[in-house]
Amino acid sequence: MEDKWIELEAGCEGRSVMEALQAQGVYMAGNCGSNGTCGKCRVRFLSAAPAPSAADRKLLSADAIDRGERLACKAQAAAGMRIEMITPDESAMKVESSFSMPSLPTENLPEKEAGSAGAEGTSAGQIVAAVDIGTTTIAMSAVEAGTGRILQTVTGINHQRAWGADVISRMEASNQGKGEELQQSILSDLDELRKKLGLPAEVKMLISGNTTMEHLLQGLPCRTLGVAPYTPVDISLHEYENMTILPGISTFVGADIVSGIVACGMDESEEICILVDLGTNGEMAIGNRDRILSASTAAGPAFEGGNISCGIPGIPGAVCSVEIKDGKAKVQTIGGSPASGICGTGVLEVVYELLKEELIDETGLLDDDYFDDGFPVAEGVVFTGKDVREVQLAKSAVRAGMEVLIEAYGTDYDHIGKLYLAGGFGQKINLEKAVGIGLLPEELLDRMYPVGNSSLAGAVMAARDPETLERMAETALRSEETALAESPLFSDLYMDHMFFPEQE
């Protein structure tokens, strides 16, 4: 990770260091929404470090504090401060843009260098930009309208991460008067990707994403999203400037899931299928052409490396695969770089391996040898008992939500035709290990299909055939939402699935 020194400019007084950096155009992820709870926004002061805050003393070691390290979200800014950025560089984050869909006759092309989307023989007017706006990342494809041929795909970070890693943090930031900043952030990100594709400013965009992301994009207020009865301003299929905003089902089940349902063909299928997007919100749907139920559960960011002590996004150096034998970990990292942290797939695998080696028990209790300091995954990378608990919370929420939907639909595992796993995490996880920790049901192991970015796939389908928009609108309208928070069964299953399965 390359050191980067920043000097704070005049006029930054009264702000936190993180806010001052944002004002200077310096991006820094604010995973916990500047609440001082994640410990990921560390900076080091070259001189005259401010007094450590309570959050600094709780989350940073005494040695780190002595070195001048502080949490940027809690340190007060002053002009002339010289700061070293010591957070992971997310610019090289691997963003999932590929998908594998039987309903799409074309294969997604790998990400290319900028500017080649306007391929010879294809006029700009025939090109549509299909977009997936995720909470963490964005993917944009230049699509030849009518054929669905993908000319080029580019990806990037959703820089709204500076206001928090999850949708709740973004809602709160918007409600605190930062809605315009959030809107300008995502518009700037989209414009940057458009330029990389070499497309004109007026190019038509088809926007798929969760409900909060679509609200922030349009500058819509988020006040009603986070409080009962959780009413969105507009989740219908509609136009906004040069964009077609794809329809969602509810505040917590957005257009990304509707796009996935249609892309996977669930809305026209005779057999009952399940779609699960293993992201922060754990969105899922079950059904076929006759009926669709959906739900969302607060899985948390553990499977994206969030709330994990040494967790980082999928950047070079992130531990992505783990094998433990005789108490020693053998790891693989993204890009083969030296280990600098652990990403979502690595988090899942290290828990499975610890369970397999009986270094944690079914309750999640870490072995005495590692109870205090955590298990050493790689040099400088440890996995703690608190990290195990974060995984338990996440996997229990997803599994319990899935089983409540199956029960509400009036079916069982024997009658499920396919389980589609959407998103980058769902595409890359080791399915056997996901089953081994109880995240996914063993009964469906032979019917699991990682499909990749199904949200982007749905937008590409709509670019290919405008009638897809009607399918999406109809699917959104006829889909029923199950409120998991109001379900006694969910509470019971959530507690049951906190335990890990017995290992054979």
Describe the structure.
By secondary structure, this protein is of the alpha/beta class. Among the domains are: 4-87, Ubiquitin-like (UB roll), CATH 3.10.20; 92-265 and 454-465, 2-Layer Sandwich (Nucleotidyltransferase, domain 5), CATH 3.30.420; 312-378, no CATH class. It is built from 13 helices and 21 strands. It has a 6-stranded mixed sheet, with helices on both faces. A 6-stranded mixed sheet has the order 20-19-11-12-13-21, sandwiched between helices. The protein has a 4-stranded antiparallel sheet with strand order 1-4-2-3. The radius of gyration is 22 Å and the shape is globular. The model is unreliable at 105-115 (pLDDT under 50).
Summary?
This protein is 29% helix and 20% strand. The protein is an alpha/beta fold.
What brief labels describe this structure?
504 residues, globular
Write the layout of secondary structure elements.
Elements: E1 4-7, H1 17-23, E2 42-45, H2 54-59, H3 62-66, E3 69-71, E4 82-85, E5 127-133, E6 137-144, E7 149-157, H4 167-197, E8 205-209, H5 211-218, E9 238-240, E10 243-245, H6 255-263, E11 272-277, E12 283-287, E13 292-296, E14 318-325, E15 328-333, E16 341-342, H7 344-356, E17 375-378, E18 381-383, H8 385-409, E19 416-422, H9 423-428, H10 431-436, E20 448-452, H11 454-464, H12 467-478, E21 480-481, H13 488-496
Parallel strand pairs: 5-8, 8-10, 11-19, 13-21, 14-16, 19-20
Antiparallel strand pairs: 1-4, 2-3, 2-4, 5-6, 6-7, 9-10, 11-12, 12-13, 14-15, 17-18
Helix pairs in contact: 4-5, 6-11, 6-12, 8-13
